[in-house]
Design brief:
The protein has 444 residues and is an alpha/beta fold. It has two domains: 7-128 and 376-441, 3-Layer(aba) Sandwich (Rossmann fold), CATH 3.40.50; 131-369, Rossmann fold (3-Layer(aba) Sandwich), CATH 3.40.50.720. The protein is 28% helix and 17% strand. The strands form three sheets. A nine-stranded mixed β-sheet has the order 3-2-1-4-5-6-17-18-19, sandwiched between helices. Strands 8-9-7-12-13-16-14-15 form an eight-stranded mixed β-sheet. A hairpin with a 2-residue loop joins strand 17 and strand 18. Helix 4 packs across helix 6. The longest helix has 22 residues, at 131-152.
Length: 444
């Protein structure tokens, strides 16, 4: 009879990180079902060592018996334990070069690597995510820094009272603050030079859902992109309302040959298409990017596009929140990631360069890559609820060779990046980034 694997909770990795993959209440749920839990002691974690001890876990400086280690971000290479299971966000699947030393070390140390991001249903929808909180925090931070920028430009605006998400401490407090701003908008409205105040949103997944959830506190009016020119020309807008646009794929892209847009063709032959966002960007005050992108697909916002548009009128775009945060990705202006302490930079289209901060005439970009960490307790609770059952399933089967056990949920088996020093079949394309030739293991 197999014994349950002992679960280990990794301490937060990275500057400013305090999220936990499993919160104390869910640790207690595991312990009550016979799964022992060890927790790496950490003063940075949003939940205290004492809370974990009260939940029935052992709090240690180093793991002793834990064979299945669960975290949020990947730990440092020199802190890896050999021959263990790691379930983290390793950020290797988009071929990010900075993450390759971690993958190489996992192969060398015979680590079974499970990627949270790849735990998906058969249709590819993610089942484990922080995306909702990334959207929420990205939206409130964007309103805060937009308000600061407009103040610097001498433009009165209702966002001056909003603070960054991390200064509120809870989602409830964030929403109450933004609802207060919404009431202010309806009473006083915007200065005419900001009207109509339009926020554009890309994506239809968890990130976009979080953005729209927070934006709902402002009671926005939704409009179609196709209606924008007529909407503005005929002054259909009101000064005391916020407007939002959620772009569909066929609105974001167009065929290079002038043909009609077909999603099936776009997904199969993305090189046949280009961005259509130049038709809409001039009318937006804010763009919030939350859709998936990788190098196969065309960029949505390029430097060239912004340079061409900025020399014409109208061009009202002040702010881009790149919540997806792909460097040189869908939003080419995102040339680097930022931190909560230094969250913005501004693109100056006239000279094709960047300056730090928002005090400049150009398009300001927010590209913080760990936004959910600004509400660490709330975001951790939601995430923990999503992975708790998967952690139990793996621990209770008591096996490390996960891909070869059909009793382990298929969504977990599909999320295995590496096992026994080999890349899983679906991820063999990563072999070219490993110095030595890497063998391939098949999912069964």
């Amino acid at each position: 009879m197999r014994k349950n694997l002992v679960v280990g909770i990794l301490r937060p990795a990275g500057e400013g990180e305090s999220r936990a993959p499993l919160v104390p209440s869910d640790v207690n749920w595991l312990v009550e079902r016979g799964v022992s839990v060890e927790v790496e002691s950490s003063p940075e974690r949003a939940f205290s060592d004492r809370e974990y001890r009260s939940s029935g876990a052992r709090v240690l400086d180093k793991f002793r018996k834990a064979a299945f280690l669960v975290g949020v971000k990947a730990p440092r290479v020199d802190e890896l334990y050999e021959d263990r299971i790691y379930m983290v966000f390793p950020h290797v699947c988009k071929e990010q070069s900075p993450a390759m030393p971690f993958l190489r070390a996992c192969l060398e140390k015979k680590i079974t690597l499970i990627d949270h991001e790849k735990i998906c249903d058969p249709c590819g929808r993610r089942l484990v995510y922080f995306g909702r909180f990334a959207g929420i925090c990205g939206m409130v931070d964007s309103l805060h820094y937009l308000g600061r920028k407009l103040e610097w430009k001498g433009i009165k605006n209702p966002f001056s009272s909003i603070r960054p998400a991390r200064e509120y401490g809870s989602l409830k407090a964030v929403k109450e603050a933004v609802e207060g701003v919404g009431r202010k908008v309806k009473r006083r409205g915007f200065e005419k030079k900001l009207c109509p105040f339009i926020i554009g949103i890309t994506g239809h997944g968890n990130v976009s859902g979080g953005v729209q959830e927070l934006l709902g506190s402002l009671d926005p009016v939704e409009i179609s992109p196709r209606d924008i020119p007529r909407f503005i020309r005929h002054r259909k807008w009101m000064q005391n309302r916020v407007y939002k646009i959620v772009f569909l794929r066929e609105e974001k892209f167009r065929s290079r040959s002038g043909r009609s847009f077909y999603s099936e063709e776009y997904l199969k032959y993305p090189g046949r298409f280009e961005s259509n966002m130049d038709a809409y960007l001039p009318y937006l005050n804010v763009l919030v990017h939350g859709s998936y992108w990788d190098s196969r697909y065309p960029r949505m916002v390029t430097r060239k596009m912004v340079r061409n548009l900025a020399g014409k009128r109208p061009f009202r775009l002040e702010f881009i929140a790149d919540v997806s945060c792909d460097v040189n990705g869908a939003v080419e202006l995102t040339y680097r990631t930022t931190t909560p302490d230094d969250p913005t930079f501004t693109y100056l289209p006239g000279v094709n360069t960047f300056v730090d901060g928002y005090k400049a005439e150009g398009v300001t970009v927010l590209s913080v890559d760990n936004l959910p960490a600004e509400l660490p307790r709330d975001s951790s609770r939601e995430f923990s609820g999503l992975i708790r059952d998967y952690v139990y399933q793996i621990a209770s089967h008591g096996v490390k060779d996960i891909t070869r056990h059909a009793a382990v949920p298929a969504e977990i088996r599909r999320a295995v990046i590496a096992q026994d020093g080999k890349l899983a079949a679906d991820f063999r394309y990563l072999g070219k980034y490993i110095r030595q030739k890497v063998p391939v293991v098949s999912h069964e």
